[in-house]
Amino acid sequence: MAQTPQTPVRLDDTDRKILSLLQQDSSLPLEEVATRIGASRTPVWNRIRRMREQGVIRGQVALLDAESLGLEACFFVLIRTTEHDADWAARFLAAVRARPEVIEAHRLAGDIDYILKVMVKNARAYDRFYQSLISEVRIQNVTALLSMEEMKATTALPIPEA
């Protein structure tokens, strides 16, 4: 979960245009990306390769539809713990990473220590997840919030201006 802060990469307008297109559809052929931004293929490829090497582009994935897979329940799980030692944190991290239902996990500042985004088939599947988690790691308090409607979801990051 923890990541080392890195110095932001300098991007020009062409880089930002490429990234915007790739965030919309990373399967676009290189020729199409080049045409849309008004550049030739080789310089566009070189920019994409550079941004991969710099870690700006971390990978390419297929985005799946949760409902088509029968995952109709999205829970936001708020976790409070009284344990903050390294051993507990390592066990918690391992438990969270081992569960494919957890699609996001964040350590927070404030009253809540962690928040998990959990995708499951239904409430019964969530209860199995919950029982399994608390059998592995000691947790002071868990609050599960069922999302009634997804109003916005995107993987696209806002690309800062120079």
From TrEMBL:
Gene Ontology annotations of biological process type: regulation of DNA-templated transcription; response to amino acid
Q: One cellular component GO annotation, for this chain's record?
A: cytosol
GO-annotated molecular function: sequence-specific DNA binding
Alphabetized Gene3D superfamilies for the sequence: 3.30.70.920, Winged helix-like DNA-binding domain superfamily/Winged helix DNA-binding domain (1.10.10.10)
Please name the SUPFAM superfamilies in this protein's record.
Dimeric alpha+beta barrel (SSF54909), Winged helix' DNA-binding domain (SSF46785)
Report what the protein is called. Transcriptional regulator, AsnC family
At the top level, the lineage of the source is Bacteria
PROSITE patterns listed in its UniProt record: HTH_ASNC_2
List, for all copies, the residue spans of the domain called HTH asnC-type: 11-72
This protein's record includes keyword Transcription: yes
Give yes or no: UniProt keyword DNA-binding: yes
